[in-house]
Structures are given as C-alpha cells and as structure tokens.
Amino acid sequence: VAKIGRLSTKDTVLLLCDMQEKFRPNIFQFTNIVSNAARLLQASRVLGIPPILTEQYPKGLGPTVPELGAEDLKAHAKTSFTMMIEEVQKELEALGNPKRAILCGIEAHACIACTTFDLLEKGVEVHIVADAVSSRSQTDRLFALSRLKQSGAYLTTTEGVLLQLVQDAKHPNFKEVLTAAALFHHIGLDFMGLEETSLPKCL
User: Fold this and answer.
1) What is residue 197's predicted lDDT score, i.e. its pLDDT?
2) Domain spans in the chain, listed from the N-terminal domain onward
3) Residues of the chain with pLDDT under 50
4) Active site residue 22
5) Domain Isochorismatase-like, which positions (predicted)?
6) Of the residues 17, 104, 111, 118, which is catalytic?
7) Helices marked H in 95-203
8) Active site residue 175
9) So what's the pLDDT on residue 2?
10) What is the pLDDT at residue 21?
11) φ and ψ at residue 87, rounded to 5 degrees
C-alpha cells in the first residue's frame, strides 16, 4: 500500500523547534509562525497528542517566547541543529516511538531540516507545517521546504493538520479543537452549528 501521509491522533507527536526570543527580530514572519505553532499546541492538548519542545543554546538565544504557550513543557536545551538529541530520543521512546511527527519551528534550512532527515532515517513519517516553519530568509525557507519534500517529508498547513486530525464534524473534540485553534471564521459558524455569542471574545 502506498504511503499517503494520512494524519492520525494515534502514534503522533508534535515537535516544537527553537522558537526563542533572540530569533524574534530576524525570522521571516516570526509572529505568524509562533501563532500557528501555538494553535497546534493548543489542539494537541485537546486531542492528546504529546508535544516536545527544544531550545537552541538558550544561554545565548534566550528562552522560548511566551506567546507559544509552552510554559508547562520541559524545554530540551541543545547545541546541535537536530532536535533528535539523547533527551528527546528518550522522551520519544517513553511515548512508544510515535510513527508520525508534526514539525514546526525554526530555522527551516537548519534545525527543521536536520530533524527531518534524522526522523526520516528512523522511519518516522514527518509532516512539516509550512505556515509554522521559517528562516531568516524567505529564500532559505522555500528551498528548504522543497528539499525536504524531495526527501520524503509531507508539507501541510496549520489548518490542514487540524482538520485532518478531527476529520469529521461529529468528532467528540471537533468544536473544542476549532475553538482552541480559532478556526471558526475560516470554516463558518453555521457548518458547526454554533452561535456567534458562544465564541470566546478573543475571536
């Protein structure tokens, strides 16, 4: 059977790569990248998908930005470009070695690329969230995504991931996931049988 890259909440992990303060002024579309990653993190909590967070040399590059909403996660400090350091591999083993990874963060041509290569070599299916991944340069970002697709990673989007994970408006967490991810106005309130007044004021 051909691999088609279908996402599932089972055997899946969310990888959050190096979204730190010192990168803020230099990364292309940094605010949007972190916002989309935060939506994925919120939804992962609702759906029971475990998240793993890393920080690249935090002493020099600072902590993870607060707007990601990952204060409760243990940040694995690293100096290598790949996220697949010993501590992360131990955490993956403790999770039963998930078969699929949803990957977001920075930088696309460095840490995201090295992480993807390592995961693919281990037989893990990698889903790179294109609107939650970036680099300092848009050129580096675009060519990195193209290169990683050539290597066998699947390219997707934040909304694509969330809708694939729930798949059906009858999913027991459908409304909760879309509320957390602020997708109501993209999909339509009538479709979900929700009233405008039922939405959080932040939407």
Assistant:
1) 43
2) 12-180
3) 1, 184-203
4) no
5) 12-159
6) 111
7) 113-121, 138-151, 158-166, 174-181, 184-187, 189-192
8) no
9) 57
10) 95
11) -65, -40
